[in-house]
């Protein structure tokens, strides 16, 4: 491909007029452009830069911007420009320099002729922008950041785009009719449920806050919803995103605090829901992790559970769950679930999640995400991980470029993870809760010892993956659920073993140290058997085995289980 030029022009009518007259391509050629003032930036693409710049000059939202950069290449076409625009929006939104003021109209991830060739040449454009100070970090650094991974400016795949469009149609219809409806999105790990949740919050707020006079490119993915009528239906919506897990919630709050039109207060704990019909819409990520009435991790949360029940229902009946809070506190709900990721008895009971799915299906309000976004091994690897933990025949372990390895020697696996972290970053050890957490009370204590190697559990509860010493620690399920890693080194602890007589995986209660993970529920009169807890622990390992984007390494502590898995995989561990 020929080299791209980046032309910088003052953002005023006189300068734009002179610039446009100097080259006919500026009025009739596909280009990508940015407009900024050093702190705020807008990214776009057009086939007529002259007309588009005049439209922006007339837009009140762009009046404070001062300079335009136009990226021109003789071999650009419309598809290339849409793709480059998509990349720049995502990278600049996750970088630290600019506030991106683009609306979330729908960034495409469409295939086109010779896309791989063009994308390789994008690197030269990014390098120029880094040299000019438009970007402040390298692309690998940006891609590894939480601001990138959880940005509302994502390129949706076809699967997600179809689901978002159908969800919007359902929401606008029920919104206009003032009817209440629960929509449900079901998806395996890595299908992008969290991305869809964040994306929809930004998209709906952009529709509600859109200027009817502001021209919108007609080929934007969701341009139809910015037409007259939709913003009027929304009015001034009160929208909240409920995330049960503390660590992920704190991460997404940081993203929202940097995103125009959003605010970190929109990202909430279920315990923040204490007023009936306070929200027009609540979107709940990991809705299977909402809680039922059980002994909470703290006295304050036990008290808060009672207070919320009284505020929402007028009584403290034990049957009320946090799902009931969500439904009482909002007119519309969007619940994103994967029933196989419930990891402790205090989560919503499986029967409640299954009932939710059944009701949504009968109301034609159930949407499925099936395309694998996280794991490069695709759906074949997700199915493999499920079979592996159940000791079912797994079939081939060839997942293309996905790097799956089974290690007999824990020291070698740890060395491999450290090497991958030095090479590509975001490579961490994670484990089931099969060791006591001594370092919680004694920072000098070691928690985990395997083959003579001593390590500590994660020493910070929030955003552990990006903390300074995380590569030398071991992450628990409560720290990593919902997050991506490049490589995950999964330690299957002695909370799981192998029963030779039955040929099945068994749960070892004495080797499982999550007190809330095995606690009975006397308030509801529920006692959890080893078989009950086995399902939760297997779910934990399914989650851990699906964190790695590029690869997963596995070490099994229990010797009998390790031997069985080696035989099942038909090979020798490293």
Quick overview of this protein structure:
This protein has helices at residues 13-21, 49-57, 78-94, 115-131, 139-143, 146-149, 158-177, 193-209, 230-234, 246-257, 299-313, 322-329, 350-362, 378-389, 410-424, 477-480, 530-544, 559-569; strands spanning 5-10, 31-36, 40-46, 67-72, 99-100, 107-108, 155-156, 181-187, 239-242, 267-268, 279-284, 330-337, 366-369, 403-407, 427-431, 448-450, 453-457, 473-475, 485-492, 496-499, 504-507, 548-556. With 574 residues, the protein is of the alpha/beta class.
Question: What's the layout of helices and strands?
Answer:
Blueprint: E1 5-10, H1 13-21, E2 31-36, E3 40-46, H2 49-57, E4 67-72, H3 78-94, E5 99-100, E6 107-108, H4 115-131, H5 139-143, H6 146-149, E7 155-156, H7 158-177, E8 181-187, H8 193-209, H9 230-234, E9 239-242, H10 246-257, E10 267-268, E11 279-284, H11 299-313, H12 322-329, E12 330-337, H13 350-362, E13 366-369, H14 378-389, E14 403-407, H15 410-424, E15 427-431, E16 448-450, E17 453-457, E18 473-475, H16 477-480, E19 485-492, E20 496-499, E21 504-507, H17 530-544, E22 548-556, H18 559-569
Parallel strand pairs: 3-5, 6-7, 8-12, 8-13, 9-10, 9-11, 11-12, 14-22, 15-18, 15-19, 17-18, 19-22
Antiparallel strand pairs: 1-4, 2-3, 2-4, 16-17, 20-21
Helix pairs in contact: 1-2, 3-4
């Amino acid at each position: 491909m020929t080299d791209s030029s980046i032309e910088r022009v003052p953002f005023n009518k006189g300068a734009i007029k002179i610039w446009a007259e100097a080259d006919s391509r500026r009025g009739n050629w596909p280009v990508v452009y940015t407009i900024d003032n050093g702190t705020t930036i807008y990214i776009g693409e057009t086939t007529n830069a002259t007309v588009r710049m005049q439209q922006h000059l007339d837009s009140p939202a762009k009046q404070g911007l001062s300079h335009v950069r136009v990226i021109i290449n003789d071999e650009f076409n419309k598809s290339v420009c849409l793709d480059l625009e998509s990349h720049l929006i995502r990278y600049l939104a996750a970088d630290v320099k600019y506030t991106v003021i683009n609306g979330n109209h729908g960034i495409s991830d469409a295939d086109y002729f010779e896309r791989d060739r063009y994308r390789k040449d994008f690197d030269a454009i990014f390098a120029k922008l880094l040299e000019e100070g438009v970007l402040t970090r390298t692309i690998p650094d940006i891609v590894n950041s939480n601001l990138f991974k959880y940005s509302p400016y994502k390129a949706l795949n076809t699967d997600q785009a179809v689901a978002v469009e159908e969800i919007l149609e359902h929401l606008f219809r029920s919104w206009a009719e003032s009817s209440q409806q629960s929509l449900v999105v079901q998806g395996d790990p890595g299908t992008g449920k969290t991305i869809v949740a964040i994306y929809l919050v930004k998209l709906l707020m952009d529709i509600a806050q859109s200027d009817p006079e502001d021209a919108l490119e007609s080929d934007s993915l969701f341009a139809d919803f910015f037409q007259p009528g939709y913003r009027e239906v929304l009015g001034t919506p009160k929208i909240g995103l409920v995330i049960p897990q503390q660590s992920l919630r704190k991460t997404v709050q940081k993203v929202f605090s940097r995103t125009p039109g959003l605010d970190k207060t929109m990202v909430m704990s279920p315990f923040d829901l204490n007023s009936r019909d306070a929200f027009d819409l609540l979107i709940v990520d990991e809705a299977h992790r909402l809680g039922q009435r059980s002994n909470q991790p703290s006295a304050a949360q036990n008290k808060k559970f009672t207070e919320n029940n009284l505020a929402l229902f007028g009584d403290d009946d034990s049957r009320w769950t946090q799902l009931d809070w969500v439904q009482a506190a909002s007119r519309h709900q969007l619940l994103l679930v994967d029933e196989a990721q419930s990891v402790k008895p205090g989560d919503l009971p499986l029967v409640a999640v299954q009932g939710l799915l059944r009701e949504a299906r009968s109301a034609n309000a159930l949407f499925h995400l099936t395309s694998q976004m996280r794991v490069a091994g695709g759906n074949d690897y997700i199915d493999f991980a499920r079979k592996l933990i159940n000791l079912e025949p797994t079939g081939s372990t060839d997942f293309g470029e996905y790097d799956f390895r089974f290690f007999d020697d824990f020291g070698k696996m740890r060395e491999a993870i450290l090497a991958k972290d030095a090479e590509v970053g975001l490579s961490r050890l994670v484990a089931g809760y099969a060791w006591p957490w001594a370092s919680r009370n004694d920072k000098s204590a070691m928690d985990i010892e395997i083959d003579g190697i001593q390590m500590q559990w994660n020493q910070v509860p929030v955003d552990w993956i990006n903390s300074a010493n995380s590569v030398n620690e071991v992450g628990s399920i409560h720290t990593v659920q919902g997050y991506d890693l490049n490589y995950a080194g999964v330690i299957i602890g002695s909370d799981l073993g192998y029963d030779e007589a039955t040929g099945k995986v068994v749960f070892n209660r004495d080797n499982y140290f999550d007190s809330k993970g095995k606690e009975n529920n006397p308030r509801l009169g529920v006692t959890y058997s080893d078989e009950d807890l086995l399902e939760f622990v297997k779910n934990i390992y399914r989650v851990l085995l699906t964190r790695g984007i590029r690869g997963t390494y596995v070490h099994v502590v229990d010797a009998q289980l390790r031997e069985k898995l080696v035989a099942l995989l038909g090979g020798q561990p490293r």
